[in-house]
Structures are given as C-alpha cells and as structure tokens.
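Translate structure to sequence.
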C-alpha cells in the first residue's frame, strides 16, 4: 500500500471518508493486486459481532470468490471468521503466524489468522499489523526462493 494512502487512512475517521478518498484507496488496492472481501456480505453501522449463522450462510460465496481470484494467501480477521472458514475452533492468540491449508473444490488454499483490528480488536491492532507485515515479508521470501529454484531448473 502506498505510504501516503496508509497515512491518510490512519488520519481520517471512516465516517469522514469522501467518495473521492474512497476511490483513491480502491485505486491503490487495485494497483497493488490485493483483494478485500467480507464473509458476512452485509454492512452494519458498528462492529457488532454477527451470529455464526450469517457467516455460514455466505461461506459458499466466499469460497467461490477464492476460486475466481485464486489468491496466493488469504488473511482471516478474528477468531469467529477464522473458525468458520477453517472449520475448526481458532484462537488467534494461539495461532499467530501459523499457516493453515484448506482444500476447497479440489484446490488447496493457504490461510493465516490475525486479530480483527476493529471494535474491541483495536486493542490488538499493533499485533494485526505486525502479523500482516510478517506474512507479506515471508511471501516475498517464498516467491524469491521459488524464482531461484525455477531459474536453477532452466539453467543447463
């Protein structure tokens, strides 16, 4: 993410975002090839927890999004969403920086769970940022190693 955009996001309250600023953020997201989605597929005025039934109702749509986008890694925010998507009880505090694999329609996807940085989760926002940076750094290292191995295969 562009540092200037990141700084503005931190400075501007969500309710104060203009349409122009939102478009700036969306353009930055598009330029950096990362995707954001919401399992709940609904919007609330606050960060109240939704019942598990709402998330489970839309899980098939999220999995369809995975098939369309084919992401290298998926970051799940919070215990509740992580538990529903991975179909096992997850406590982010116990699984930080741990890779999970899940097969969906014959393809394996890679997941990490991080703290939900909104509402009460804002108390763990530093840990969320730390974990996301760690994930991105390790993806860069993995990609570099893959490229090196591919180049070794090509070299005769």
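Result:
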């Amino acid at each position: 993410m562009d540092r200037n955009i990141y700084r503005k996001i931190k400075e501007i309250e969500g309710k104060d975002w203009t349409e122009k600023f939102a478009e700036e953020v969306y353009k930055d997201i598009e330029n950096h090839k990362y995707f954001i989605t919401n399992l709940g597929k609904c919007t609330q005025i606050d960060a109240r927890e939704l019942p598990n039934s709402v998330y489970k109702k839309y899980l098939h749509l999220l999995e369809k999004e995975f098939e369309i986008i084919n992401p290298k890694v998926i970051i799940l925010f919070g215990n509740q969403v992580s538990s529903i998507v991975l179909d096992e009880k997850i406590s982010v505090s116990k699984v930080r920086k741990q890779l999970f694999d899940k097969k969906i329609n014959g393809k394996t996807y890679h997941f990490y769970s991080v703290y939900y940085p909104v509402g009460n989760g804002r108390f763990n926002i530093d840990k969320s940022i730390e974990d996301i940076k760690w994930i991105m750094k390790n993806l860069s290292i993995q990609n570099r190693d893959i490229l090196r191995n591919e180049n070794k295969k090509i070299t005769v």
